[in-house]
Amino acid sequence: MDVVRRNTDYAVRLMVNLARRSDNGPVSTRTAATQEQVSYQLACKLMQRLHKAGLLKSSMGPKGGFNLGRKPSEISLLDIISAIQGPVSVNKCVLIPKVCPRSKTCSVRDKLADLEKGINDSLSKITLDELAHKPTPKGKGRMKRK
Predict the structure, then answer these.
(1) In terms of residue numbers, what domain contains 111?
(2) Number of domains the chain contains
(3) pLDDT digit string (tens) for 31-85?
(4) Domain of 11: which CATH number?
(5) I want to staple 84 with a disulfide (CB 3.0 to 4.6 A). Which of 8, 42, 112, 146 is the partner?
């Protein structure tokens, strides 16, 4: 089970790109997609969803593109995840209690609800500003030569 799906990971990378460049005016989808190694077609779809959720503002014209809809410190990782893949849910019984007739008496559901709350609380505390200003480790993911 992936809490953060592939498309959501791409959307987070696109948002971090925009946050790092937020003082430089709008960024085109093509530029952000190229820099973050996301296909242009997918980036267009993701940017539209982020725009619809109010996380991005768009501007038209030759110097148009996308800007953040709010300050990076006001956009959480949970906001981005929710915009792309919907609410984070551990189980349907927690998200929609009417799914299970035992939801009011089930001790498992209560524990899953606690877990879900903890995940959502943690994700809501991670801001785009924090992600955009964390230094990227050099050589991460590369094999070391002997």
Answers:
(1) 6-132
(2) 1
(3) 999 999 999 999 999 999 999 999 999 998 888 899 999 999 999 999 999 999 9
(4) 1.10.10.10
(5) 8
